[in-house]
Amino acid sequence: MSYTARAESTAELFNTGMLELEHVYKSFAGRTVLSDVTLVVPKGATHALIGSSGSGKTTLLRLTLGLIPFEKGYVKINDQPLSSFAPSEWADRIGYVPQDGGLFPHISGKQNVALVPGLRNWPAARIDARVEELRVLVGLDKAILARFPHEMSGGQKQRVAIMRAAMMDPPVMLLDEPMAALDPLIRSTLQEELKSIFRSLGKTVLIVTHDLGEAVFLAERITLLHQGRIIQTGTYRELFLTPADPFVSLFINAQRSLPDVSAVA
Amino acid sequence: MRLCMLLCALMIGNAMAAGKPIVVGSKIFTEGYILGELAAQTIEASAPPVPVTRKLGMGSTGILFQSLSSGAIDVYADYTGTLTEAIIKNPALKSLPEIQAALGKLNLVMSEPLGFNNTYALAVRESFARENNIRTISDLARVSAVRMAFSYEFMDRADGWPGLAAAYHFAVPPKNVNRMEHSLTYQAIDQNAVDVIDVYSTDAKIRKFNLRVLDDDRAYFPVYQAVWVARKEFVEKYPAQWLALGKVAGTIHVDTMLDMNAAADIDKRSYAQIAAQFRGARPLANDSLASRLLHRTLEHLWLVAISLVFSIVIGVPLGIAAVRFQATGQAILLLSAMIQTVPSLALLAFLIPLFGVGTRPALVALCLYSLLPVVLNTFTGIRSIDPRHLENARAFGLNSRQILLRITLPLASPMLLAGVKTATIVSIGTATLAALVGAGGYGAPIVSGLSLNDVPTILTGAIPAALMAWLAHALFEVLGKVLIPAGLRVRP
């Protein structure tokens, strides 16, 4: 039994995952994109799914969001399979933060944040209270929310997008490359803040990224995806010290300016 | 497409059912306009009072006959020779009772002749006539070495020059008989380049160039007596009005008609004034340029606005469908592009059998022409949206309707609005053609101005149309500020 499988079965035995992918298979036009992917993110944990482009991580993200069907396996939240929900119910269980924030350009930050609760007929007072609560939490200036996306900085867009994802209070949040478009200086401050935001929200978080630095800094555990298969799941320390496959070392060494192993662990 | 036509037809049908005025039509040349106006004023002055709608300058006999049959118009003026040839299709019929009986079978009623015969005739310079002492065509046939210029039609018709030459035993060498564009023959005779031309007996240019019309002493030319033609239903429903029209019969002498045509073509007086003067009445109070302009503006706006509403209601869903269904989409785009290539006159001609004349076919045509910019811009607008926005909306749990209304249409709105703007401005221009089928608007003075070769009259239609297009442009600038979401207006 491989290291990966042992780690997963331990998680299954002792800690029911809030977000679980079980033996997921996906192929496009006969070409296998994901093969037997099993991933368990325990309640309250921050987990990173990492892989280079073409590894299948975007497909995994999309099927987790219910955007594309898959052939075999389950995606479950709190032990309930995705297929048992209507699309809108599913969306209320996973808060999604697209790459670059993905704010709709035609409406203000506030309107972006209030879009889904507005469609669910929340009273205005309730929406305002929730927006204010999240605004303080993500540390965003009130005036920024009134702006249109093209008038915001990259970091401001990310904060608004996180507010939008958290509005319906979903147990799970899914972030796609949250730092990719950011200036390196802003990155480091936002990384700190994101960590504290995740802690305050108490959400189960899955970050999908190609950047090991981002994964190591934000997530407790990392899953490395390569050619549609999970190569290894563990802490950065485990991946670094006991690679399950030569590719793990190759991947780690290919990434530059990594933090020292002793600093993370 | 068919839906578009159907909707337009239903709309207008309902609008028409509301009030039922008497509708007077007319042919599309000066004399037709004057007689149409005369009929309208005669009915307006009759008791009991009935409202009158003028649909003047509609086209040729074929269109007017169809309009009479379908009830789109009630009465108009035509000529006995045209009726036997184009409607009864039996040119052998000569006597008035025979013609009346034949029209009766078609549910039409013909009045007594109005008093003049508008047929082919030969005309010579007044001075030439005096020098050679010519009054009749027989007199002319005796003069040797006469130079002639005839229109192509007159040269080619069996009842034109070939038959005439035989009937009167003309002995003119062929080189003396010139074949020319009709409008140029007047210049030719005026400058003494030729001595004889063919004319219509009531043509205003006879007065303008001081020509003498020769008597057809052997009664060679067919008779084209002007008469009123009406639907039987109209005559039964409005006997007083038909009687009033009947009193005009026999009162319009050929010289009177020549004077009236000259007043319109040469003195550029309005048809309404000419008709009013003939009736001995004062020109109608609402004949002022301002009130005519207001009336035409309302007609034009109505045409543009209604057709635009339909093209949006039909075009936007078609554009959305074109994005959603690939193959169907290409078919929709191709079809709306093909409609655009149909010449407007051909389209109108095609629509008349389906929708009659007046506002209805004009609206359908305008609606069809507006379709392409609306469909194409809706399609392009939606296709140019970053697909990630649409996928994100799905990930947030929005359903198809919510995505369309909250995301797709707002993001496509600048493009969509540009399409509607193009459609509007094109419609304002194209709507001037609506006058060809009697729908009025700014096209009415343009069409009658063209028939009179009267530039000022053309301009009273063309300038307001250009102004309306400019105003529409300004209106869309304002609409853009209201309708396009604020986040899309300023780009960094």
Your description of this structure?
The complex is a heterodimer of chains A (about 260) and B (about 500). Chain A is of the alpha/beta class and about 260 residues long. Chain A is globular. Chain A starts with a helix and ends with a helix. In chain A, helix 4 packs across helix 5 (about 125-140), helix 4 packs parallel to helix 7 (about 155-165) and helix 5 packs across helix 7. Chain A is built from 12 helices and 10 strands. Chain A has a domain at about 1-95 and about 200-255: 3-Layer(aba) Sandwich (Rossmann fold). In chain B, strands 7-6-8-5-9 form a 5-stranded mixed sheet. In chain B, strands 3-10-4 form a 3-stranded antiparallel sheet. In chain B, strands 1-2 form a two-stranded parallel sheet. In chain B, helix 21 runs antiparallel to helix 23 and helix 22 runs antiparallel to helix 23. With about 500 residues, chain B is an alpha/beta fold. In chain B, helix 2 links the parallel strand 1 and strand 2. Chain B has helices at about 1-15, 30-45, 60-70, 80-85, 95-105, 125-130, 135-140, 150-155, 160-165, 180-190, 205-210, 230-235, 240-245, 255-265, 270-280, 290-325, 325-340, 345-355, 360-385, 385-395, 400-430, 445-450, 455-485, 485-490, and strands at about 20-25, 50-60, 75-80, 110, 120-125, 150, 175-180, 195-200, 210-215, 225-230. Chain B has 3 domains: about 20-115 and about 225-285, Periplasmic binding protein-like II (D-Maltodextrin-Binding Protein, domain 2, 3-Layer(aba) Sandwich), CATH 3.40.190.10; about 120-215, Osmoprotection protein (prox), domain 2 (D-Maltodextrin-Binding Protein, domain 2, 3-Layer(aba) Sandwich), CATH 3.40.190; about 290-490, MetI-like (MetI-like fold, Orthogonal Bundle). At the A-B interface, helix 3 and helix 4 of A face helix 20, helix 21 and helix 24 of B.
Number of strands of chain A: 10
Mind summarizing the main beta sheet of chain B?
Answer: 5 strands, mixed
Mean pLDDT of chain B: 84
Radius of gyration of chain B: 28 Å
